[in-house]
EAL domain-containing protein
Amino acid sequence: AAKHSGRKRHRFFKPDMNTAVISKMLIQQGVRDAMARNDLHLAYQPIVDLQSGEILGAEALIRWHHPEKGNIPPDSFIPLIEKTDLILPLTLWTLERACKDLTNHLLPRRPCFKLSVNISGAALKEQSIRDKIHQIISSYALPAHTLHLELTETSMMENIQSCADILYNWKGTGADIWIDDFGTGYSSLSYLHSLPIDGLKIDRSFITDITQIEGNQVVETIITLAHSLGIETISEGIETTIQQQFLQSRGGHYGQGYLFAKPAPLEQLTHILDKESVHEPL
Ligand code: C2E
Ligand code: MG
Ligand code: MG
Ligand code: MG
């Protein structure tokens, strides 16, 4: 095939070729290699009950350790991979690995542990992802509501009607559905009640804004909205006790952030869980 595409290739690499296109190709190949070479890992960040201080669960976050370039943050490769077919095997890799760790290490320590996995909006259109989620949940015999699938608000709002149908179908797997980065995607609020949503993750940018105990009006409004919809909230990116206290006082359910713990390898999470079960709350 290389022979036949000789002319095409020449044309393809014309001098004005965009460097963004080149880096997209390099990253695509890099991720393919990383999957094959075992250079991908999951980090886990605890999610804490803001009222009791106890650990509810954790979010699985992908990590790529490149042999030469070192750690490559997900924000610099996931958005590119989302534009390619590779997002499907990558999403499935994350899901499978997360459920394996959940079954072997987390549920034995906490039978009610909730594990959040990020699902790219690109996967919404793939029937095979829904079936794979179902397959994994059945094969590991995961209890219902153990797995939280996080989808960004933006990806859901692209086509609300088909998204509602798809998510109702996904709910049949037993997983819960959460809206990630909520507040940044210009949701039509009137549509929210038509989606089978279990919770809202309030975007970090609003939490960062809470610098005084008076807090932030947007955050308060989102928490009130969630209460009125009968769903829960997780506040992302809590770094200060002022933020924690404000969210707690306004009825925020759960929180996640450097104040509690940074994302870290599985062993660190199991260590925290083992310590917590003795008597030390996080
Ligand atoms: P996200 O799902 O909104 O994840 C939360 C991000 O906030 C994580 O960044 C986390 O490390 C960071 N974070 C948590 N607490 C704090 C804090 O207190 N302060 C600050 N400054 N940051 C905090 P991370 O791990 O770099 O991931 C970035 C994004 O990449 C994620 O945002 C998610 O959209 C995407 N991503 C990560 N893993 C996966 C994955 O397995 N699949 C897919 N499709 N996307 C992923
Ligand atoms: Mg997330
Ligand atoms: Mg988020
Ligand atoms: Mg985010």
About this structure: The beta strands are 40-49, 55-66, 70-72, 114-118, 147-152, 176-182, 199-202, 232-235, 254-255. The mean pLDDT is 90. The CA atoms of residues 91 and 119 lie 6 Å apart. The radius of gyration is 20 Å.
